[in-house]
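Quick one, C-alpha coordinates below. Sequence please?
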Protein backbone atom coordinates (compact mmCIF):
# COMPACT_ATOMS: atom_id res chain seq x y z
CA UNK A 1 0.00 0.00 0.00
CA UNK A 2 1.45 3.37 -0.94
CA UNK A 3 2.05 6.13 1.62
CA UNK A 4 -0.63 8.31 0.06
CA UNK A 5 -3.25 5.56 0.32
CA UNK A 6 -2.31 4.89 3.95
CA UNK A 7 -2.75 8.57 4.78
CA UNK A 8 -6.13 8.58 3.09
CA UNK A 9 -7.12 5.44 5.02
CA UNK A 10 -6.25 7.07 8.35
CA UNK A 11 -8.15 10.17 7.28
CA UNK A 12 -11.34 8.20 6.59
CA UNK A 13 -10.92 6.17 9.80
CA UNK A 14 -10.64 9.42 11.71
CA UNK A 15 -13.83 10.77 10.14
CA UNK A 16 -15.59 7.47 10.88
CA UNK A 17 -14.47 7.61 14.53
CA UNK A 18 -15.73 11.18 14.89
CA UNK A 19 -19.03 11.04 13.04
CA UNK A 20 -20.24 7.41 13.22
CA UNK A 21 -21.80 7.93 16.72
CA UNK A 22 -23.73 10.96 15.45
CA UNK A 23 -24.99 9.04 12.40
CA UNK A 24 -26.17 6.17 14.62
CA UNK A 25 -27.91 8.63 16.93
CA UNK A 26 -29.70 10.29 13.98
CA UNK A 27 -30.82 6.90 12.63
CA UNK A 28 -32.20 5.79 16.01
CA UNK A 29 -34.06 9.09 16.44
CA UNK A 30 -36.44 7.71 13.78
CA UNK A 31 -36.88 4.40 15.62
CA UNK A 32 -40.50 3.62 16.48
CA UNK A 33 -39.58 1.48 19.51
CA UNK A 34 -39.44 2.91 23.03
CA UNK A 35 -36.24 0.94 23.65
CA UNK A 36 -33.59 3.00 21.88
CA UNK A 37 -31.22 0.10 21.16
CA UNK A 38 -33.76 -2.08 19.33
CA UNK A 39 -34.80 -1.04 15.81
CA UNK A 40 -38.54 -1.60 15.24
CA UNK A 41 -39.21 0.47 12.14
CA UNK A 42 -39.16 4.03 10.85
CA UNK A 43 -41.24 6.61 12.69
CA UNK A 44 -41.23 10.35 13.43
CA UNK A 45 -43.50 10.12 16.47
CA UNK A 46 -40.72 10.95 18.95
CA UNK A 47 -40.26 14.34 17.30
CA UNK A 48 -43.96 15.06 17.94
CA UNK A 49 -43.70 13.90 21.54
CA UNK A 50 -40.55 15.98 21.96
CA UNK A 51 -42.37 19.23 21.18
CA UNK A 52 -45.26 18.26 23.49
CA UNK A 53 -42.88 17.75 26.44
CA UNK A 54 -43.21 21.07 28.26
CA UNK A 55 -40.48 20.38 30.80
CA UNK A 56 -37.92 19.51 28.14
CA UNK A 57 -38.91 22.48 25.94
CA UNK A 58 -38.57 24.84 28.93
CA UNK A 59 -35.06 23.48 29.52
CA UNK A 60 -34.20 24.04 25.84
CA UNK A 61 -35.51 27.63 25.96
CA UNK A 62 -33.58 28.34 29.18
CA UNK A 63 -30.34 26.97 27.71
CA UNK A 64 -30.76 28.92 24.46
CA UNK A 65 -31.33 32.21 26.30
CA UNK A 66 -28.34 31.65 28.60
CA UNK A 67 -26.13 30.59 25.67
CA UNK A 68 -27.12 33.64 23.60
CA UNK A 69 -26.45 36.11 26.42
CA UNK A 70 -23.23 34.31 27.33
CA UNK A 71 -21.90 34.37 23.76
CA UNK A 72 -22.61 38.10 23.33
CA UNK A 73 -21.03 38.99 26.68
CA UNK A 74 -18.03 36.72 26.16
CA UNK A 75 -17.27 38.25 22.75
CA UNK A 76 -17.35 41.79 24.19
CA UNK A 77 -15.14 40.89 27.17
CA UNK A 78 -12.88 38.70 25.01
CA UNK A 79 -12.37 41.54 22.54
CA UNK A 80 -11.43 43.96 25.32
CA UNK A 81 -9.01 41.42 26.80
CA UNK A 82 -7.49 40.72 23.36
CA UNK A 83 -6.77 44.43 22.78
CA UNK A 84 -5.07 44.65 26.15
CA UNK A 85 -2.97 41.55 25.44
CA UNK A 86 -1.93 42.60 21.91
CA UNK A 87 -1.87 46.39 21.82
CA UNK A 88 -0.59 47.29 25.30
CA UNK A 89 3.12 47.49 26.06
CA UNK A 90 4.75 44.44 27.68
CA UNK A 91 4.92 44.65 31.47
CA UNK A 92 4.68 42.38 34.47
CA UNK A 93 1.04 43.45 34.93
CA UNK A 94 0.29 42.43 31.35
CA UNK A 95 1.90 39.02 31.97
CA UNK A 96 -0.18 38.57 35.11
CA UNK A 97 -3.32 39.65 33.25
CA UNK A 98 -2.57 37.17 30.44
CA UNK A 99 -2.26 34.36 32.99
CA UNK A 100 -5.52 35.35 34.66
CA UNK A 101 -7.38 35.50 31.31
CA UNK A 102 -6.22 32.06 30.18
CA UNK A 103 -6.49 30.35 33.61
CA UNK A 104 -10.10 29.12 33.05
CA UNK A 105 -8.86 27.20 29.97
CA UNK A 106 -6.90 24.77 32.14
CA UNK A 107 -9.08 24.90 35.25
CA UNK A 108 -11.32 21.84 35.85
CA UNK A 109 -15.02 22.62 35.62
CA UNK A 110 -15.60 21.20 39.09
CA UNK A 111 -13.25 23.78 40.62
CA UNK A 112 -14.82 26.64 38.63
CA UNK A 113 -18.32 25.60 39.63
CA UNK A 114 -17.44 25.09 43.31
CA UNK A 115 -15.56 28.39 43.59
CA UNK A 116 -18.41 30.32 41.96
CA UNK A 117 -20.94 28.63 44.25
CA UNK A 118 -18.94 29.68 47.32
CA UNK A 119 -18.67 33.22 45.87
CA UNK A 120 -22.43 33.51 45.33
CA UNK A 121 -23.16 32.17 48.82
CA UNK A 122 -20.69 34.63 50.39
CA UNK A 123 -22.12 37.55 48.39
CA UNK A 124 -25.65 36.59 49.41
CA UNK A 125 -24.60 36.59 53.08
CA UNK A 126 -22.66 39.88 52.93
CA UNK A 127 -24.46 41.91 50.26
CA UNK A 128 -27.82 40.19 50.10
CA UNK A 129 -27.31 39.46 46.40
CA UNK A 130 -28.03 37.15 44.67
CA UNK A 131 -30.98 36.05 46.80
CA UNK A 132 -31.67 33.00 44.62
CA UNK A 133 -29.52 31.09 42.19
CA UNK A 134 -30.92 30.70 38.71
CA UNK A 135 -30.44 31.99 35.16
CA UNK A 136 -28.45 35.03 36.30
CA UNK A 137 -25.89 33.02 38.26
CA UNK A 138 -25.57 30.46 35.45
CA UNK A 139 -25.03 33.27 32.96
CA UNK A 140 -22.32 34.86 35.14
CA UNK A 141 -20.61 31.49 35.56
CA UNK A 142 -20.67 30.74 31.84
CA UNK A 143 -19.32 34.19 30.95
CA UNK A 144 -16.43 33.54 33.34
CA UNK A 145 -14.94 30.67 31.36
CA UNK A 146 -16.34 31.45 27.87
CA UNK A 147 -14.60 34.85 27.88
CA UNK A 148 -11.24 33.06 28.13
CA UNK A 149 -11.95 31.01 24.98
CA UNK A 150 -13.21 34.10 23.14
CA UNK A 151 -10.10 36.07 24.15
CA UNK A 152 -7.79 33.37 22.78
CA UNK A 153 -9.59 33.24 19.41
CA UNK A 154 -9.75 37.03 19.00
CA UNK A 155 -6.16 37.53 20.19
CA UNK A 156 -4.80 35.20 17.51
CA UNK A 157 -6.64 37.17 14.83
CA UNK A 158 -5.62 40.53 16.26
CA UNK A 159 -1.93 39.56 16.21
CA UNK A 160 -2.16 38.84 12.45
CA UNK A 161 -3.79 42.15 11.56
CA UNK A 162 -1.81 44.69 9.59
CA UNK A 163 -1.55 47.87 11.68
CA UNK A 164 -0.69 49.89 8.56
CA UNK A 165 -4.35 49.79 7.49
CA UNK A 166 -5.47 51.47 10.72
CA UNK A 167 -2.57 53.95 10.54
CA UNK A 168 -3.47 54.80 6.95
CA UNK A 169 -7.11 55.43 7.92
CA UNK A 170 -6.07 57.78 10.75
CA UNK A 171 -3.57 59.54 8.48
CA UNK A 172 -6.49 60.26 6.14
CA UNK A 173 -8.41 61.95 8.98
CA UNK A 174 -10.47 59.15 10.52
CA UNK A 175 -10.94 59.31 14.26
CA UNK A 176 -9.85 56.29 16.39
CA UNK A 177 -13.52 55.39 16.93
CA UNK A 178 -14.31 55.55 13.20
CA UNK A 179 -11.15 53.58 12.42
CA UNK A 180 -12.23 50.89 14.87
CA UNK A 181 -15.70 50.50 13.34
CA UNK A 182 -14.68 50.81 9.66
CA UNK A 183 -11.28 49.06 9.61
CA UNK A 184 -10.60 47.03 12.75
CA UNK A 185 -14.04 45.56 13.37
CA UNK A 186 -14.59 44.25 9.79
CA UNK A 187 -11.14 42.64 9.85
CA UNK A 188 -11.95 41.04 13.21
CA UNK A 189 -15.39 39.85 12.08
CA UNK A 190 -14.41 36.21 11.27
CA UNK A 191 -12.74 35.82 14.67
CA UNK A 192 -15.70 37.45 16.42
CA UNK A 193 -18.09 35.05 14.68
CA UNK A 194 -15.92 32.06 15.60
CA UNK A 195 -15.63 33.22 19.22
CA UNK A 196 -19.41 33.76 19.42
CA UNK A 197 -20.17 30.28 18.09
CA UNK A 198 -17.57 28.69 20.37
CA UNK A 199 -18.95 30.49 23.43
CA UNK A 200 -22.53 29.62 22.47
CA UNK A 201 -21.64 25.94 22.10
CA UNK A 202 -19.67 25.81 25.36
CA UNK A 203 -22.52 27.41 27.28
CA UNK A 204 -25.14 25.18 25.67
CA UNK A 205 -23.07 22.08 26.44
CA UNK A 206 -22.11 22.88 30.03
CA UNK A 207 -23.40 20.55 32.72
CA UNK A 208 -20.89 20.63 35.58
CA UNK A 209 -20.66 24.38 36.26
CA UNK A 210 -24.41 24.90 35.79
CA UNK A 211 -25.15 22.12 38.27
CA UNK A 212 -23.24 24.03 40.98
CA UNK A 213 -24.71 27.50 40.41
CA UNK A 214 -28.27 26.77 39.30
CA UNK A 215 -31.34 26.99 41.45
CA UNK A 216 -34.63 25.12 41.51
CA UNK A 217 -36.21 27.49 38.98
CA UNK A 218 -33.54 27.15 36.26
CA UNK A 219 -32.85 23.78 34.71
CA UNK A 220 -30.70 23.79 31.61
CA UNK A 221 -30.93 21.29 28.77
CA UNK A 222 -27.81 19.25 29.74
CA UNK A 223 -29.12 18.99 33.31
CA UNK A 224 -32.54 17.86 32.08
CA UNK A 225 -31.05 15.34 29.65
CA UNK A 226 -28.61 13.98 32.23
CA UNK A 227 -31.34 13.50 34.83
CA UNK A 228 -33.61 11.77 32.26
CA UNK A 229 -30.76 9.50 31.05
CA UNK A 230 -30.21 8.29 34.61
CA UNK A 231 -33.79 6.96 34.53
CA UNK A 232 -33.25 5.32 31.13
CA UNK A 233 -32.59 6.83 27.71
CA UNK A 234 -35.75 8.19 26.12
CA UNK A 235 -36.08 8.25 22.30
CA UNK A 236 -37.06 11.91 22.68
CA UNK A 237 -33.48 12.65 23.69
CA UNK A 238 -32.30 11.17 20.38
CA UNK A 239 -34.76 13.38 18.50
CA UNK A 240 -33.62 16.46 20.42
CA UNK A 241 -29.96 15.65 19.82
CA UNK A 242 -30.64 15.24 16.10
CA UNK A 243 -32.27 18.67 15.93
CA UNK A 244 -29.33 20.21 17.80
CA UNK A 245 -26.87 18.56 15.38
CA UNK A 246 -28.88 19.96 12.47
CA UNK A 247 -28.91 23.50 13.89
CA UNK A 248 -25.20 23.40 14.76
CA UNK A 249 -24.32 22.06 11.31
CA UNK A 250 -26.27 24.85 9.60
CA UNK A 251 -24.69 27.49 11.85
CA UNK A 252 -21.20 26.09 11.22
CA UNK A 253 -21.81 26.06 7.46
CA UNK A 254 -23.02 29.68 7.49
CA UNK A 255 -20.02 30.69 9.60
CA UNK A 256 -17.68 28.90 7.18
CA UNK A 257 -19.25 30.77 4.25
CA UNK A 258 -18.85 34.11 6.05
CA UNK A 259 -15.21 33.42 6.90
CA UNK A 260 -14.47 32.28 3.36
CA UNK A 261 -16.03 35.40 1.84
CA UNK A 262 -14.22 37.64 4.33
CA UNK A 263 -10.88 35.99 3.53
CA UNK A 264 -11.47 36.38 -0.21
CA UNK A 265 -12.35 40.03 0.28
CA UNK A 266 -9.25 40.58 2.43
CA UNK A 267 -6.97 38.92 -0.12
CA UNK A 268 -8.52 41.00 -2.91
CA UNK A 269 -7.93 44.19 -0.89
CA UNK A 270 -4.32 43.22 -0.21
CA UNK A 271 -3.75 42.53 -3.91
CA UNK A 272 -5.28 45.89 -4.81
CA UNK A 273 -3.05 47.67 -2.27
CA UNK A 274 0.07 45.92 -3.61
CA UNK A 275 -0.93 46.72 -7.19
CA UNK A 276 -1.47 50.39 -6.29
CA UNK A 277 1.87 50.54 -4.44
Amino acid sequence: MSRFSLSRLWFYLGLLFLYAPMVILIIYSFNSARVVTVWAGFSTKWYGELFSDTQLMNAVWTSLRIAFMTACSAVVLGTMAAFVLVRFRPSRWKTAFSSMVTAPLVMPDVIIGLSLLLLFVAMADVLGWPKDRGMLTIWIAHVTFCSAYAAVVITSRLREMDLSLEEAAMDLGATPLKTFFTITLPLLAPALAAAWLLSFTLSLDDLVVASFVSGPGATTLPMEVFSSVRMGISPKVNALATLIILVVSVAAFISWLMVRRADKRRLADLKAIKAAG
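The two ends are 51 Å apart (CA to CA). Residues 169 and 179 are 6 Å apart (CA to CA).
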